[in-house]
Amino acid sequence: HGRPTAHLALREAVRDHPQPALAARSLAMLAGDLLMSMAGQLFVTSGLPAAYLGRARPLWAALARELIAGECLEILHTGSAAPDTAISLKVVRYKTAKYTVEQPLLIGALLGGAGERLRAGCSAYGLPLGEAFQLRDDLLGLFGDPALTGKDGSDDVRGHRPTALLAETWRLAGEEDRERLRTLLAAGAGTDKDTGTDTADTGTGTGTADADAVRDVMRRLKAPDRIEAMITARVEQALHALDELDLPGPAAAALNRLAHSAAVRRS
Question: pTM value?
């Protein structure tokens, strides 16, 4: 947070390349491939008995597949002419909820020898909590304090990302507001921060102004309130699933803290 992403940080390494932006982006993708490989290596060389690792290895593979599926869904629906909440929540489930909460819990449970009931409880807790985490992230992306989040508050508008926040705004909007959103999102997408042509950070370009205007529409239609309600409902669902598990005190307390910290945060 607050630091250049890999494809920007690596430009210094290829500043003499004929196409430094493209070269840096390619290097960043290769760095991601390398890190995935290294993570797998750390997993299989963790020192745990082979029988324990064998229980969890299929879930490790599923985690990677589902993360990539979620990222692909986001790319395919970015810039959609008619944002859809169901599609946005599907992106959330695969891109974040499974990868960030559900599958790590299931891997830990399997490594510890958990039975079927406990694993089902991990999913019933982890999926709604992971969705709540991403929904909070979407709100912070547009309405959070950049000094705390480390993110440019106009990124989601510039990228025209298929967030549930945007989809709910679209669902609540009448034709006049939808036309305004089309215009604002098209203008935001016309600025490309990666190539250095966007001046949103200095306040002189269209990115910041477009994001402010989109925020105004969202507030007027009370779309952020809808997302807050979705977050609350999912946290309550996760905590109810946790209550059903009859876990040891320290484990239940840790998962309770996780649920509240994931949903109630400023960064």
Answer: 0.85
